[in-house]
Amino acid sequence: MRKNKLLVVLISLFTLVILMAGCKGTGPEGESAGAESDKTESGKTVIDFWVSWGDGKADWFNKWIDKYNESQDEVEVKATFIAGDAWDQKVKAAQAAGTGPDVMTMNYGSIVFSAQQGKIQPLDEYVDPAIFEDLHDFANEFVSFDGKHYAYPFNAEPGSILLYRKDFFEEAGLDPEQPPETWDELIEYGKKLSKDGRYGLTAAGNTNDLAWSHWGLQAMTGQLPINEDWSEATINNEGYKKLFKFWNTLYEEGIFPKQQPGMYTEIQPLVDGRTAMMFNGSFTFDALRNEYADVVDKIGVAPLPTPDGNYKQPTSAMGGWTFVVDGNSKHPEEAAKFIEWFLGGDPEIMVDFFELSNFSSFTGRKSVDEALKDHPQASNDEWRKILLEKVIPYAVPEPIHAWEISLAYANALERVYLQGQDIDESLKQAEKEINDYIEANDYAGTNPRLQ
Amino acid sequence: MKEKLNIYGLKLIGFLVAILSIFPLIWMAMAGFKKESEVLSYPFKFFPSEWILTNYIELLQNPAFMRSIGLTLFVAVVATTLIIFINSMAAYVFARLEFPTKNFWWLYVIMTLFIPSMAILIPSYIVVAKLHMLNTIYVLIIPGIASAMNVFLIRQFYLNIPTELEDAAFIDGANRFKIYWYIFLPLSVPVFVLVGITAFLGYWNSLIWPIMTISDERLYQIMQLLAYFRSDQGNDWAMIMAGSTIAAIPVIVLFLIFQRHLIEGIKISGIK
Amino acid sequence: MKKLSAINRSDKKTAFLMLLPLIGLLTAFVIIPLFYAVFVSFYKWNFYQENIFIGFENYKRVLSDPLFYKAMWTGLKFAAIVIPIQFVLAFLFANLIRTLGGKFGGFVKTSIYIPHVISGVVASIIFLFIYDFDGGLANFIIQSLGLEKVAWLADVKFALASISVPAIWLGFGLTTLVMLAGLNDIPKTYYEAAVIDGANAWHKMIYITIPLLKNIFLYLLVVGVTGAIQQFDLPYLMTGGGPLNETMTPNLFIFTHFTKDPYMGYTVSSALLLFVILAVISAVIFKLFNSKKMDS
Question: Are residue C89 and residue C38 in the same domain, yes or no?
Fold first, then answer.
């Protein structure tokens, strides 16, 4: 009897020991990251750097980080590449527990709120102000909040452009150098280009993708679905009616498939000839040039068609990435200095990146653009030229209003083209949804950009 | 004659559903042999037009990938053992023992079954951070050990075991733990196989928790590594499918080894 | 009498000792976080600034959001599609495997279980390819039957059903296996006695099999329903919750807020409300089972 009791005690103890061992972290791999280990054996300060995407660029990051580590003996930057699937969970949990990195990547849309909540720190007091003078206006605006700079731009990319197959244009008797410029033209071209087994156009087809990939189209109507101080819905108007009618026609005429082929970000349907035209982002250039070199010559690039055919208006929202210093970082100066060196220093670093990513995104820095002018590949890049000339100068920044607003737009559009609801009614409903949201969340006047 | 036809009919149905069930997996394995651009190709193609072995070979020769498989295996085995032991002990208590506050503790345990992971994702991360468990092997194993679902399942199983055996043991002077250890544990093989496989799978396929708590590459779990491939290699579906196929093999093998024990459940009925 | 109470006293100590590891671990990693979550749900929770107490504001926002109700409803609908089909299929196949027996039965059993080993992420990717509008297997079959192509994931009528298929596919094997284990546990003598009494196959099922599987059914139902309502991977990767939020399951809804909201309050409150709903549903299932006189 006693023996068995002993056994119980032993087992409980065993469990507890495991627990405690875990608590102390004395295991073989028991060192913890983040704020805990901020010195290397040689006394260098460790700067943790979390990168949210790899896209095959991890080697590039490491190459230049190594160079930075060798260039001085104060700081050692350690990069961790985190799979996109759980980036949000990892970052938010680490922020909540105070175990976040010193530096991380952040998209433009998150900067303002993060700055407002103190999740990231301004860089100004640690870095040479000249690096901000080097920024294009749009990039400078992106990273600024309340008169300070809270991030430094890494890249920028237009989220919506038109890609099309020149060979199919010729087949259909259209001029491959004259892509459609107006919405009506697009419909007309789409009809001519569609045939059995080929759609005239593909674009985002599911709610989430619609919600963000239409920011460019929304801008063409002259306003976002919500007004600037976030006090009122601005979706029930002629501009949106026209946009909805345009989109619905694409669908009704069979130019557009009932279900988007594959995933939105896939370029494959254009490559294998399932579609003649496609709305997508400039990031597709990378895959096109890497994996489908044999069709690159057949592909044309243009701004999205606009209601009146004039490209000198916003046709795309600009997204992109920056580096930021965490609000809890114990070494903000070292962290900021690293960002300054990496993104704001030698233009060669970023030129190297754009070369590696096949010029599928753009820089926010004047000096990098200067350097790219002399780059044989970049200066001869037709696609790049078109975007630099016709899209980027007019692009709008990614909106920062609540996701619900974008969702209300996407749902309104879906009601029309999936369920055949009357456009007026659908927009009225969306207007109500947005206004209800504003009321329920005391949303009016909370736009941090205006504060 | 009619009965024979029936059996053949049943066999045919069974065969068709069996094929239907494994078809997507075979497709996944096939995709691993395809060229990157062919996985999504249109029209639908089952076999690769050209068999490519490089995806599989590259992965099998990738030390990070193989080490991750080994480590995940270790984590899953240790965790599964602990899960079976700790949860079955509690299940036995809830199935057989009477003590004050029993209802309270039963509710205490069972309500955790319904907690959506999103509700406690950040708070439980804060707990493990405060316990300095981040980036250790313990954070992968320990937080998932206690599982209301398993307590529930094992208890259901124990409730079905007739009390005659224990009565005899009681008369012989055995205490409760002894009865659990010598009578219940040996009878539990079928339910343990079930719990074990499910628990093992849970650990094997866990993705969000490892990504959140582990930054040290040496501790990467297999699904974490595959997710990293997915975001690092862009849309190299062939490679991803090959990786997923290799990652599925250990679990399938394990299942094949243990599945016969489920049939051994028949033996238990002998005691009824 | 005296002896019995002596046993009871030792029970108490043994009981707590044997429960200790479970309770300890649950408390540390589930209950404490839960209480923490409840606590912060009353605050404007900000990791870097002082938390601001706002009472029930977060809950009020969730409860005034029509999309929250729609998501809960979608979760229920999803469970209502998946669970009955899974149950009937699993019950039939458990019986079929038992009837076939031998190697062939083993082959069928193994084949239908194996999909369970792959993760929801991989399953989603596989089924995205199957549902592809042009090159997918599903439309290939539909067209060879002479019908018009179906927008499986984009059509409001089909989307939820379409994502239910992989859910059934993933879970059906395990359900079958559990039922099979239960079936194998029923002594043959019960059936033999029933046959002597003149029972047919239908009677055997109604009066022996189903009542004796009660505990198994209860387990499968609670786990199945709560699991189905919490489905995340499939809609997340296959439809993103669309079209028109038709496949926006509660967890996907919560996750969307988790990633897009600048504050965490809404996310935590809606997750806690989901917790309450799941607990209530399960309590109802328990009640229903216990009220029926099915004790063997």
Answer: no
Long-range contacts of the stretch B161-167 (C-beta < 8 A, 24+): B161/B187, B161/B268, B162/B271, B162/B272, B165/B271, B166/B96
Tokens for B233, please give them.
């290699």
Query: What pLDDT score does B263 carry?
Result: 53
Write the CA distances from C114 to A134, B18, B250, integer angstroms.
58, 10, 12
Distance CA A123, CA A335 (A): 9
Do β-strands A103-107 and A45-51 pair in parallel, antiparallel, or remain unpaired?
parallel
Q: Could you list the residue range(s) of the whole structural domain that residue C37 is in?
A: 17-55
Three-state SS for C127? helix
How far apart are the C-alpha atoms of C149 and C133, rounded to whole Å? 7
**Residue C156, min C-alpha distance to chain B (Å):** 25
Alpha-carbon gap: C243 to the closest alpha carbon of chain B (Å): 23
Q: Average pLDDT, whole number, for chain A?
A: 87
- ipTM of the prediction: 0.86
User: What's residue C291's pLDDT?
Assistant: 61
Does residue A29 lie within any of the structural domains? no
C226 contacts B113? CB cut-off 8 A: yes
CA A240 to chain centre: 24
pLDDT of residue B139: 95
Residues A344 and A273 in one domain: no
User: Which of B98, B176, B88 has its CA nearest to residue C12?
Assistant: B98
The tokens of A23 are what?
């608590």
Beta strand spans in A255-399 (E): 275-280, 299-302, 317-325, 396-397
Helices (H), C155-243: 159-185, 188-196, 201-204, 210-212, 214-229, 233-238
Locate all alpha helices (DSSP H) within chain B, ordered by sequence. 2-31, 54-60, 63-96, 102-110, 117-130, 137-141, 148-159, 164-171, 176-179, 185-187, 189-204, 208-213, 222-232, 237-263, 265-269
Determine the residue among A398, A418, A429, A435 to mutate to test chain C binding: the one whose Cβ has the most chain C Cβ atoms within 10 Å: A418
Nearest-CA distance from B3 to chain A in Å?
Answer: 47
Per the structure, the complete domain to which residue A202 belongs is given by 161-315+400-450
Does residue A271 sit in the same domain as residue A310?
Answer: yes
Asked if residue A267 and residue A207 are part of one domain, the reply reads yes
Report CA Rg, chain A.
Answer: 25
Alpha-carbon torsion, ordered C51, C52, C57, C59, to 10 deg? 20
Q: Does B37 sit within 8 Å of A86, measured CB to CB?
A: no
Give the residues of chain B that fall short of pLDDT 50. Answer: 265-272
Is C289 in CB contact (< 8 Å) with chain B? no
Q: Is B187 exposed, middle or buried (0-12, 13-18, 19+ CB in 10 A)?
A: middle
Within a domain: B29: no
Contact across the interface for A117 and C151, Cβ inside 8 Å: no
Which residues 6+ apart lie within 8 Å of C5 measured at CB?
none
Residues C32 and C174 in one domain: no
pLDDT value of residue A290: 83
Preferred mutation among A90, A266, A295 to probe B, highest tally of B CBs within 10 A: A90
Answer yes or no: is pLDDT of A156 > 80. Answer: yes
H or E segment at A107?
strand A103-107
Instruction: Give pLDDT tens digits for A218-227.
Output: 999 989 999 9
Task: Determine how many CB atoms are found less than 10 A away from the CB of residue B103.
Answer: 9
User: Do A420 and A340 share a structural domain?
Assistant: no
CATH number at residue B206: 1.10.3720.10
Mean pLDDT taken over chain B: 85
In a domain, A62, yes or no: yes
Which residue in this structure is represented by tokens 């679905």?
A225
The beta-carbon contacts of A284-288 under 8 Å, at least 24 apart in sequence, are A284/A163, A284/A360, A285/A358, A285/A359, A285/A360, A285/A383, A286/A55, A286/A357, A286/A358, A286/A360, A286/B234, A287/B234, A287/B235, A288/A358
The verdict on C38 and C159 lying in the same domain is no
